[in-house]
Amino acid sequence: MDETYDVRKEIYQRIRSNDYQVIVLGTGLTECILSGLLSVDGQKVLHIDRNDYYGAESASLNLTQLYKKFKDTEPPSELGRDRDYAIDLIPKFILASGELTKILVHTDVTRYLEFKQIAGSYVLRDRTVSKVPSTESEAVRSSLMGLFEKRRARNFFLFIQNYKDEDPSTHNGLNLDNDSMQTVYNKYGLEAGTQDFIGHAMALYLDDSYKQKPARETYERILLYTSSMARYGKSPYIYPLYGLGELPQAFARLSAIYGGTYMLDKPIDEIVTDSDGKFAGVRSGDETVKAKKVIGDPSYFMDVKGESRVKEIGKVVRAICLLKHPIPNTDNSDSAQLIIPQNQVGRKNDIYIAAVSSSHNVCAKDVYVAIVSTVVETSAPEAELLAAYKLLGPIHDKFVSVNPIYEPTTSGDQDNIFISRSFDATSHFETVVDDVKDIWKRVTAKELVLEKKTEPEINENN
Amino acid sequence: MSETQKPVQVKLVLLGEAAVGKSSVVLRFVQNDFQEYKEPTIGAAFLTQKCRLEDKVIKFEIWDTAGQERFRSLAPMYYRNALSAVVVYDITSSSSFDKAKSWVKELQRQASPNVIIALVGNKLDLVDGSHEEDEEGDDATATPTAGQEQSRAISRDEAQAYAEESNLLFFETSAKTGEGVVEVFTEIAKKIPLEQIVNSTKSRAQDQSQQNNVNLNSNQNQSKQVGDNCAC
Question: Residue B29 is part of which domain span?
């Protein structure tokens, strides 16, 4: 008998005998982190993707895949070799002191990845691109604020830095849980432009609704930003070599090493439920695999027994722009984040530009990849990006998509169907990790505790 | 200079059809001094082994497939920066030899152009007239034909000819008896262009664009990790 046959038979037997506890659908980052954590936790996981590549919406594509997906053509040969490209579909960076970094370190998947700093963070103010200061001396020299405003801002940051919950003398009469952020700004007499800078370039809010909410969250976001900035020095962000698509692959490998089974290129035709409406299994062709629970991205739950299990809560427009030069006015940085705060261009939501280049092994030499994105506000989404296009200089080629953002309509506690959220418009992965933790808790009925678990490494010198 | 004494890290990937003994070959190589060897459990798919070569030390960082090859689900990450590959087949199975050839093609497509590939025909013990049990330490997908003597399906000459024409190193091994296993790795080690790696690491460290590398596993705050990659 052919051995491959026997191996498959064994796995299919396992499938038929309902040996899997969790089926995971889609290999996006959220799903892969959960798959990895569940496998490490000892659960038997079957992980399926309808595509023949890892990453789903968070994949990085080579040139052929990119041109096929967006233009249905072959890539032009002048862009160079296919294999040199890994173009992210979602524009996000990793906050150096953020929650994703913690998961990467605690699961030890860092051994599969190499990271680099994003070289700089920039913000548009009064039609000028300015660097977000990364050191005190940069802050002193920065043209972002006038002299007196710098003094007021310094007092504000000293308050943030010294604030201790247990020491009322550091509170300066403010209560972070009751007073709004606007109240805090007013207390320090900060100008509107400085508020924009703090709320959008540091606390990374997409709109201004935070100002009317208790100041606590903004306070925490500023701390996260400054501690991320302090970690490596140039910007608060790090980025994996070869693109963000490496992240789901790394967690998938973690899952596989702990016994997870992977099947790519496997279409899912039906989410099967029992007579009580509880999850029973998934059907692909005439094959049904049973399990107790299912986790997956929204695209797999558009039709569960004739009903969609997700709802659209908004749209994000993204334009992947290939440039032959660094973004103008960013000090020739090989990578950058550029934030266009909504107030600066008469919008409700910020526009982000995320740029990486060949020094991150994501494109050929002398090519720069800038992804422009924002939350859609009008019926002409691409026109909303024009203010950002103007900052990019000549755009060599452009791939635009409008992406609905879905969230689940049910929590899974009734039917064991656990659905992740779409990737949102934020510039980092903090909300992705929030989703991971939330789903973990619903699936396992326990909090996610990140204990360092290392693969047994057999390491022998001779 | 201390650079020649510091082990040079070399990523080695294992490929081959399931149940040809990929894990066994590597575990035979790596476990040398291990007193109590346990079955390879899930979780053990990242092995390192140093290999001394005259005045240099190579540290093989060996990546097992972790079963991801089974449904064509091996991630591109697996091939990334692999300087060497061991493609294993079972000399009693012609389908495993065909599969090995397709893995070689896949490597030529996905891995770096200079990857050093060793073709390894395993289970030599099965055709040596020995009636021993099948190798222990095979992966979870145990060979269905355990304990039976097999007839050779792929002659040494045929495999050798293919290896020469494809520019591969070629060996026949028995992970069970250990025959030929160490040679696979020492011959690969000899072919690794060490000077080139050491030099390119140096020039990488000097290269402006490499200076933003960071090491997440470091506890040092506020320090730049110039040219120092993840502590794998």
Answer: 8-192
The Cα B8–Cα B61 span in angstroms is: 10
Pick from A110, A45, A99, A55: nearest CA to A448: A99
Cα(A286)–Cα(A305) distance, integer angstroms: 17
Identity of the amino acid at A256: A
CA-to-CA separations, B25 to B86, B97, B163, B185, in angstroms, rounded: 10, 16, 19, 10
A·B CB contacts under 8 A: 158
The residue among B63, B36, B31, B34 whose CA lies nearest residue B47 is: B63
pLDDT at position A137 is 81
Q: A62-119+312-405 has which CATH code? A: 3.30.519.10
pLDDT of residue B212: 78
- The pLDDT tens digits of the residues spanning A420-432 come to 999 999 999 999 9
The answer to whether position B177 is within a domain reads yes
Reference A67, options A400, A402, A399, A403; nearest CA is A399
- The residue among B222 and B135 whose pLDDT is bigger is B135
Q: What is the mean pLDDT of residues B106-123?
A: 92
Was domain A133-232 assigned CATH 1.10.405.10?
yes
Neighbours of B34 (CB within 10 A): 11
The sheet with strand A397-408 has its strands ordered as: A128-131, A121-125, A336-340, A351-357, A368-375, A310-323, A397-408
What would the DSSP string read from start to end of A238-291? EEETT-TTHHHHHHHHHHHHTT-EEE-S----EEEE-TTS-EEEEEETTEEEE-
pLDDT band at B156 (very low <50, low <70, confident <90, very high): very high
Min Cα distance A161 → chain B (Å) is: 17
Testing the interface with A: which of B214, B215, B222, B228 to mutate, by most A Cβ within 10 A?
A: B214
Q: How far is CA B11 from the centre of its chain?
A: 8
Is the separation of the CB atoms in B42 and B29 below 8 Å? no
Buried b (16+ CB within 10 A) or exposed e, A172-190: eebebeebebbebbebbeb
> pTM for the complete prediction?
0.88
Selecting from B67, B95, B209 the residue whose C-beta is nearest the C-beta of A334 gives: B209
Homologous superfamily (CATH) for A3-57+245-311+406-444: FAD/NAD(P)-binding domain (3.50.50.60)
Q: Is B32 on the interface with A (CB under 8 A)?
A: yes
CATH at residue B41: 3.40.50.300
What is the count of structural domains for chain B?
Answer: 1
Residue B154 lies in a domain: yes
Cα–Cα dist A239/A47, whole Å: 26
pLDDT at B6: 78
Q: Which helix (H) or strand (E) holds B61?
A: strand B56-63
Q: Do the bridges between strand A115-117 and strand A121-125 make them parallel or antiparallel, or are there none, so unpaired?
A: unpaired
Considering only A13-27, A50-64, B53-67, which range has the smallest mean pLDDT?
A13-27
Using the Cβ of B177 and the Cβ atoms of chain A, whether some distance falls under 8 Å is answered with no
> Is the pLDDT higher at A389 or at A133?
A389
B21: left (phi over 0), alpha (psi -120 to 50) or beta: left
So what's the pLDDT on residue A385? 98
C-alpha distances (whole Å) from B218 to each of A144, A453, B208, B228, B230 are 33, 17, 22, 10, 9
**Cβ <8 Å between A462 and B41:** no
CA distance A134 to A336: 13
Could you give the ipTM of this predicted complex? 0.81
Chain B residue whose CA is closest to A107: B217
Beta strand B46-53 pairing with A458-460: parallel
Spacing of C-alpha B92 from chain mean position: 21
Q: Which of B18, B32, B41 sits opposite A4 (nearest CB)?
A: B18
